[in-house]
Amino acid sequence: MADLSFIPDLPSGPLDCYRSTASFDWKQLKLSLEGDLDLLKLKYKIWKTLEKDLLFAPPSVTPSVEEQKRITQLQLKKINNYKFMTYEMFKSSYSKRTRAIMTINEAVQSVNPSVSVKMAIGIYLFSNALLSLGTERHYKFFEATIWNREILASFALTEVAHGSDARLMCTTASYDPKSREFVVHTPDFKAAKCWVGNLGRTCTHTLLFAQLITPDGTNHGLHGFVVPVRDPATLETYPGLVVGDMGEKIDGTNQGLHGFVVPVRDPATLETYPGLVVGDMGEKIGVNGIDNGRQLCGRSLARWLITPDGTNHGLHGFVVPVRDPATLETYPGLVVGDMGEKIGVNGIDNGFIMFNQYRIPRENLLNRTADVTEDGVYESSFSEPSKMLGAALENLSAGRIGIMQESCHTISSAVAIAIRYAATRRQFGAKDDEIPLLEYELHSAAVSEIHAMVSCSKPLLTWTTLDAVQQCREACGGHGYLKCANLGDLRCNHEPTVTYEGDNNVLSQQAGNWLLRQYEQAAGGVDSPLGTVTFLTRCQDILADKFSCERTEQLKDVKFIISTYQWLLCWLLKETHQQYESEVSKGQSKFEAKSKCQVYRWKTLSRVYAEYLAIIFCSESVSQEDTGLRPVLNKLLVMYGLWSLDQHLVELYQGGFASGDSLALLLRAAILEMCAQLKPEVVSVVDALAPTDFVLNSVLGKSDGNLYQNLQKALFGGAGTMERASWWREVVNSAPSKL
Amino acid sequence: MADLSFIPDLPSGPLDCYRSTASFDWKQLKLSLEGDLDLLKLKYKIWKTLEKDLLFAPPSVTPSVEEQKRITQLQLKKINNYKFMTYEMFKSSYSKRTRAIMTINEAVQSVNPSVSVKMAIGIYLFSNALLSLGTERHYKFFEATIWNREILASFALTEVAHGSDARLMCTTASYDPKSREFVVHTPDFKAAKCWVGNLGRTCTHTLLFAQLITPDGTNHGLHGFVVPVRDPATLETYPGLVVGDMGEKIDGTNQGLHGFVVPVRDPATLETYPGLVVGDMGEKIGVNGIDNGRQLCGRSLARWLITPDGTNHGLHGFVVPVRDPATLETYPGLVVGDMGEKIGVNGIDNGFIMFNQYRIPRENLLNRTADVTEDGVYESSFSEPSKMLGAALENLSAGRIGIMQESCHTISSAVAIAIRYAATRRQFGAKDDEIPLLEYELHSAAVSEIHAMVSCSKPLLTWTTLDAVQQCREACGGHGYLKCANLGDLRCNHEPTVTYEGDNNVLSQQAGNWLLRQYEQAAGGVDSPLGTVTFLTRCQDILADKFSCERTEQLKDVKFIISTYQWLLCWLLKETHQQYESEVSKGQSKFEAKSKCQVYRWKTLSRVYAEYLAIIFCSESVSQEDTGLRPVLNKLLVMYGLWSLDQHLVELYQGGFASGDSLALLLRAAILEMCAQLKPEVVSVVDALAPTDFVLNSVLGKSDGNLYQNLQKALFGGAGTMERASWWREVVNSAPSKL
């Protein structure tokens, strides 16, 4: 047995009675779930260190979004100084190094999700991209990022009007052989790079993806144009223009020389009209009540014209300096701004950026797959280098796996809060809570199977977590709605994961595509190095199975669950394939045919495959477990399997696997029996899932179970909570009657 | 045709192409959905008035929670001054007056949900309760509230450790015949009244529900006790005590006279230990850096002892003065505080209160069902007056109906944002959005059927809205996560509705109970004055029905949908009844038996009944519609019915209504066909559902469809959005390399 004394014991209290009924030691379960003693130690070391550091103390009221950004950046700086990633870890095997990075990420994420996002994007994603897309000449950036922490980077891919479809991006980088520079340009606001994490306030460099254009087509160079700027009837600036000076003030006498009246702000709301960039001159020596805002016709009148015959070599990566690292001032030629307030993770400064003929050195092109010579000739040993890039981007699974790990933390924390609350609030009442317990092992093997696995698992896990956190909030009733219960923050910070790093719907479709390919070629053997779909070769036999159980015991068996999932996958694949073929044969385009299948099949297919993966890998782990944990792990696995199957009863009936009421009756009876069996274990399971109280940061879920004392402390201790409102004079009636 | 020119026309723009395909006039649909021309005019009048009033302008950044409370209170004062409720409306019929109040509530809620909650609790709920529970002597409170707006009230029912189960409440009001007062007391923190809206900062009176105790049992009066206050070993105050002075400072020399050292705050976090009320003395003339906090052994040493033989007459209502209306200072003898930050609706000052032998005049008892004479004798003409009160509280359906109306607004707004975004972002893409469109008519008739109807409909509507807002957020991708998209606020402010005014799970169970009673007595005729369950008398025939359709056209018929719902209800009732009886016959208690049925049946039963109600009442309205709107309304109704049925396929298969794949196949094909039929209508449907742009307050959902211009304005116009962070000095490295 491993020495787990580094995990602090839990305080004795009202939860003791529930803990005494558990069949296992919660610390051993925690180790089993983590899977590695050193990583678990690392996690606790990080939690203990941050708990002692007052910079990481939870604020008593939510700071302004600006203050959240400041604290997040300061916390990142502090974490850099703590050097949790030792040189020894960095020099170990790829797999060990990756798991160490992921553990640090998870430990930091659980304390402040914004910090981990900041670190993941600004340091790890950037330096990995330099290694995979760049060459020796970019080592200086790598060194300054990962070792010296002088660079904090961002990742500029998405544009305002274009999601992640790389072919539609409009930002261009045109090579100028005279100066040996790339000229980066944003044609209009729709092409502004946006949602760029770290860009709003803090990054010094961005990894830009832009269409690379060389001068071997016709480049007409600088031209003067008469460009319509404002509507003569209303003097409103036309949409799509950024008019105004973007740099320092040159000469105060410029003010007011234009000789016409320009409407600047809507008098009703004082909002600046679209197309204008208007700023206050800042603090002056005196008369600070007057705002000397100014407007100049800026540089946008001069344009590079690039005709359609200029060769566009597609999307490439560039390192672009954005801010002076010494002063954090934005360089001239850029319009950089913060995206403003979001629903959650407000510690991250998501930004947007527009380039106005902005120049960067030729060497800043990430040139692993293709380069541009000093003279402007495009050279590559790959036939389609921009497709290589696309493929490389698509397979950046690390971010998605990180999100899954974070989701595991979020769901664990939410469930810990809800279960401890339920246990202290009252005896277990009307309904039991299911604990979908998932464990993912990281494997390195065939890329396409892994891509499919990750693409279906990220949606499953992030959606399941979103639902579970919401159910936990509702299970905690009104008190769950208190900010200090932490369920609101868990939810709002988790929320964007269903969209970013690959929208869940898009990823589901990709996983479905891979599965269909395997199904179609199953007769000739599947391409499944990890063996997750080899059963498809037995598809006909599997589909002949019928449900024939008569007792719940037969259902509460991992073998039953796995074979039912195999039936489901075979049936869904057969049906999806048939429907798709039938739509195509009716003359529908492939896109339309897919759309029709998507609503009811593709998404289900992908979800069922993800659940199947969770069950088979978890089953393998459980069977290898040789401590006393196997019984409880097996119960949790069966519970999860049955609960998941319950979501697919329609398909099981529709496909004829079962008819009549026995399947639904037995399945739901089995689930209720599993609830009863897990009831004595559940508080200790939650102890194993929960982080420390400091990290959990919930007045309802503290491990001591002293619900009402903790609630009282929180309510009485709130800043100014019992004070008369400072604004009382504004709201009382004058001379009210005494009643 | 009604003159609808008071509804502003929509701006022409990119959405025109979608609007031109609609088969109907969106303003007529808006009127049809609202159901009353005068009410629609009232709503627009309110929206236009508030749009012009700068106090209601949306803030550019989220204000602090304290500032949100201040603005909300100022807005309430302003709305009071606008007098939207005219004397004429007030004097009209009950039904007209109620609908006018609900319309004002909905219009205000859509601009700031906190204001409408404040108004509903503080003015309407309180004055209604005075009318239904009080007598002539409480008219002064009524007048001061509804006419003079001098009183802002709150509603103190829930206690920290007890939800809405009135029997378990611990706050007592003991009558003291000597002074002719009630002495209100809170035995411990678990009995503190909490979540009391308006109590935290602003209300002047609270409507308190407390156990009434008369002195005709033994009242031992005032006694001195030796009460353990602090642990001698650690000098920590025992939990459950409120120690400290609650009023004005009497004499500065009291400080430090106790002669022992009391630990006051945790040195690590500076949080006050539980059980202490410690406050700063406030501003002094000089030396303001020193905080003269003080602690005195307070009044809690003196206690009324009420022995078990003192008669407890159960829960009664009292009007309790909380703050001086002239100064908003809390009266001595009370501990009143704000609940602190919540997930949403932070404009509402939810509070908690504890009473320390607090005295109120005898007359403040709401005495419609029972009174206490001056000498302390309890008198009532009702046999169980406290049960009367409970029944009266349970049937306060108005609040729940208000929530449903607000949910309709929330779901309409979210769908408007998502559809307009989808239409401008790209052509309708891979999937269609369903529009669950619900309309509820208000009827006044048999109380128990209405209670059942409201109890199942509130959960259906609030849960559906929560899911729909989330799906709208996801459908808007990353941009939906922007604060200025407004989907986050719509969601967070809607979120508590699933818990308050009757937790959804509890309400569902109550509706299920009523349905089961009807089922059990169906042979002898059902008690259904509104006719919603009269079909139960044909239960046997209905259950003999089998699914036999062969074409989607047969499913796209309201008659098919209604008859399938009747089958579902009959089957669910039969199964629930059987399962419940079987559990009871196995020796389970009624509570346990209900719990077992609850997980899979009761909740479904209640939901299916609610959907059935929506469908039959909507169908009735549609059939009465004689304008050109009937086709589109019918399409929406069929779409909703099919979409809802799709959620219950398992039950339809399990119960043998269908077997094999034809039901699922045809149902889902019919839904896809309805999507296609509704596609040309959907933008105009949304125009009819949406409030004005000012109220919708979403950068993604503006009616002009100029998505990118609006987004640009929002991003560029954010306060300080392009400034260098003011805290840049704290986060840059000293002397970084130039890269």
Automatic annotation (TrEMBL), chains A, B:
Gene3D superfamilies: Butyryl-CoA Dehydrogenase, subunit A, domain 2, Butyryl-CoA Dehydrogenase, subunit A, domain 3. It comes from the Eukaryota. Residues 558-733 form the Acyl-CoA oxidase C-terminal domain. Residues 396-444, 446-516 form the Acyl-CoA oxidase C-alpha1 domain. Its cofactor is FAD. Keywords: FAD, Flavoprotein, Oxidoreductase. The keyword Hydrolase does not apply. The keyword Flavoprotein applies. Pfam families: ACOX (PF01756), ACOX_C_alpha1 (PF22924). Belongs to the acyl-CoA oxidase family. This is Acyl-coenzyme A oxidase. It comes from Plutella xylostella (Diamondback moth).
